[in-house]
Every structure is written in structure tokens, then in C-alpha cells.
Design brief:
Blueprint (H helix, E strand, L loop, with lengths): L1 H59 L5 E8 L2 E8 L5 E9 L2 E11 L11 E12 L4 E3 L18 E3 L2 H9 L3 H5 L1 E2 L7 E3 L6 H10 L3 E3 L2 E3 L3 E2 L6 E11 L4 E14 L4 E9 L3 E6 L4 E17 L4 E4 L1 H10 L5 E7 L1
Parallel strand pairs: 5-7, 5-17, 6-8, 6-18, 7-9, 10-13, 11-13, 12-14, 13-14, 14-15, 14-16, 15-17, 16-17, 17-18
Antiparallel strand pairs: 1-2, 2-3, 3-4, 4-19
Length: 335
Amino acid sequence: MGRATIILIIGLSVITSFLILNLNANSKEGLKTTVDHYENTQARLIANSGVEAFLEKMRRDKTLKGSYNNNSLMDGYYDIDISGPDSLGIVKSYGHFGNTIHETIVKVSREPVDMPPFKGALHIVSDVLGLKLNGNLDIDGNDTNIDGSPGPEPALPGVALDDPTDSAYFINNIKPKIANDIEGYGGSPSVYSDPDVVDWEAVMMNLIFSADQTVSTGTYSSEHFGTPTVPQITHMYGDIHLSGTCEGDGIMVVNGNLTMSGQFTYRGIILVYDKSTIDCQITGNGGVFGATILVGSNVDLHATGNAEFYYSSEAIKNSQLYLKSSRFKIVSWWE
């Protein structure tokens, strides 16, 4: 009996030791699994956060390309590589946490800029319209290239308004000489109406979201708001005076009042918008090639000098070709 008891006790001790060893091994394996899962999760979050961070940077810097490494985040870091054209850009993000690296590859397409809709060389949308037109104002809805030669597209009205009563008011309140200088679809004076169904606030906000430059109240006499090869979306707010040799290309959104004087020249689309009253004053010898849009509950248009407003499909297409929006479409997301 004594020997049997000793053998039993030794056997139980061996079995107990074996179970303890197995429990310790399982505990260590479980801990390793938990740590690995945590590191994988953190590395994935870091990599994906890196993609989101640089998509926002790409929204603001539309030419951003290259590698950007060692970006600290959440006790780890990420490396970014941006390549490819706007039509199919590739953003690679490598999230590092502990001993784990997570790779995320996102393909994106930069969406095109939605050009503001217009129906004439000068397009006015207003409940109350005020006019004071003098000088040698020239408004032409015939397609005109930037060099002054005829363009290829069909003529538009010189002036387009959103209500027949506004058209009648416009014609009845301009001098015969100016009436003869409003050319375009249908002959002089080329003034037509067409009901307006555009959500202009949405149009304006979409353009502001993609603005390359924002400027506030002031006088600008020598600035360049875009060039023919690098046009830009310019957001202006407040009382804006463009004068001297100031010029630009692209889309100009003015949220407030606009005065144009001197030799100011613009190639593209100017949109002046306000929910209440806008005051647009035009003096000097400048001009707009493209289209000019005035939208407000009350629009007061004062013009003197030798200002020119030409519909130009060339200027608009050139702007549309080179302008970049700040919106992306995710084509694929791999990780």
C-alpha cells in the first residue's frame, strides 16, 4: 500500500506539472496573439489615417506628389507615397506600430470642376434690376477667341436675364448706341430671357470648396489671379476693386460687390453672387473673355468707359482643361 500510494502521488504530480506547463504555454500564446492583434489593428489605423490626412492635403495642394516619411501618429508613424496623374492617382500608406507594418493602397480620381452655367456673355439673375449704362460698353454673345478672332461655337445672347420683364426693362433703359453694341444671338440688341432653375448658392459653395486662392475686401491693381496655362479658382468676398493691370484666368467667385476699372482683363467666368444686393461697377477699358454672371435679389449694374464683355468658348474651355477640383472619387481601396 505504501508503495502504491507513493506511485499514485508521483503520477498525480507529473500530471499536475504537465497541466501547469500547458496552461503557461497557452497563456503565453494567448498573450502573444492579443499583442499581435493589437499591433496589427494599430498599424492599420495609422496607415488608413495617413491616407485620409494626405487626401486632405491633396485637396488643398492640387500638385502634391512624392514621398513623405516618418509622420508620427498614435505612438507609431506612417510613410506616404503619392504618384500618378489626376485621372488615376495612387496613394500608398505604410503604417508602423511596434514590430508590425500595415500597407494601404488607394487609387483616386480627381473629379472635374463643374463650370457655372451661363446663357449669355452677360447673364443676370435678379428680382430687382437697376441699370446705369454709359460710355462705349461692348457686350457680344458671338463666340470670340482671346485674340479677337471669331470662335467656333454658336452665338449666345449678349445679355441673358431670368425674366421677360427684366428683358423689357433692360432694353427700355439703355441708350441706342449701347443697344447697338449688344450683339449676339438674334442680332442687336441681343437681350433675351430664360427661366432660371439653378441653385446658385450650391454652385458658389462648390467652387469655394475648390478655391485655389481666397482674398478679402480690398483694391487689387497688379495681381494675377491665374494665367492661361495655370488658371485658378479665386474666391473673393466683401467689396472688391480690380484695377490697373490686374488680370486673371479661370473662375472668379465674388461674394459681395465688384468694381472693375483700369485695364483689368479676365479670361474665364466671373460669378458675382449675394443673397441680397450686389453692386457691380465697370469703368475703364478692361474686358472679360468668357462669361460674366451676376446673381442677387437686387442687382445694380453701372458701367462707363470702354468695357468689353465677350462670350469666349476658348477661354472657358482652356480654364476647364487646366482647372482642378478639390473632390476625389475613390476608385479602389486595398489593404
